[in-house]
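Changelog-linked ticket: fructose -6-phosphate example.
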Amino acid sequence: GKDGYRHYMEKELHEHPLVIGQTLQRMIDPATRKVVLPDMPVDLATVPRAAITACGSAFYAGVVGRYWLEEIARLPVDIDVASEMRYRNPPLTPGSLGILISQSGETADTLAAMRSLKQAGLPILSILNAEHSSMARESDVVLGTVAGPEISVASTKAFTAQLTVLACLTIAIARARGTLDALGEEELVTALLDLPSKAAEVFTHGDAIRKMATIVAEARDVLYLGRGSGYPVAMEGALKLKEISYIHAEAYAAGEMKHGPISLIDRTVPIVATVPSGVLFDKTLSNLQEARARGGRLLAFTDDEGAERVSAIAEQTIVLPKVHPFVTPLIQTIGVQILAYETALLKGTDVDQPRNLAKSVTVE
Ligand code: F6R
């Protein structure tokens, strides 16, 4: 049941802290505080590349994974949505690792893309919530997202569980490749273990996010902006808004705005920005200033460290808890998912069963 929540989506949003914690428990040895993976079908020290494929939100999780794997583990990553990957016959480097991400384990395009990677000789690592699914049966190794059943059609907790697995995978590959020493691993593991309590804190901002939703609910179009690993979070936020509130939303890398979408900006097109403190903060802030100078209404998600400078230019600012920059995408995701939920409530749409959508897309 819904445990007293109004919708499964609301209940599942509230499960973020639990699910992140359960997934970490599966992947981190509490005694050594090291990431421990099952036997891998490739040698992580010498694997030359990874090819990631997935659909929808799972694909956006993969984009975050790509930023992490390339930056922290220095592993080159190809990534594509499954419906493209399966037909475009990309040249795959022999010995590469195929990585699939799926909540259901049954998505037709992802399953077909997986088979094409296998046919090209790639071993398959799947990040799955349904551990007894078609994809699970055909994978060489499965890393489970311990999210429990997800009933709401719009994915919430499965997404942060996917990010949790990808973060642990990044640490293990970085260690094997020698790009992360023991101290570095300890720092990133501490950041991950800190997440469940920080994720729970996001829910203390419910009133502020509801207030932000009143502006979003009046719009016909919304722009989502982010940089670095905040860019796929913007994509996730925009998808969630479209899915359940039927408001058109588009995500852009903040630096791309001046190459086109800035022409859209006026008071009727609010901008939702993910702008956590960190190395990209100043760059993102200056993009937001440009938008504001053109009359855009800025709705920003930052953290304690960015709060002062963001609230100086934004109409509304949500100050999420400050976490290690590595794990900011998880905290920011919870913020933008709640915003979509609150907006859909104001619009009066069917939150758990949005029109035209199915939970598991088993047709091409
Ligand atoms: C978004 C959403 C979809 C799924 C996509 C992949 O909220 O739910 O975009 O993420 O259909 O589904 P799975 O993960 O089951 O392969």
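Closing comment: Example verified and attached. The CA atoms of residues 171 and 199 lie 21 Å apart. DSSP finds 14 helices and twelve strands in the chain.
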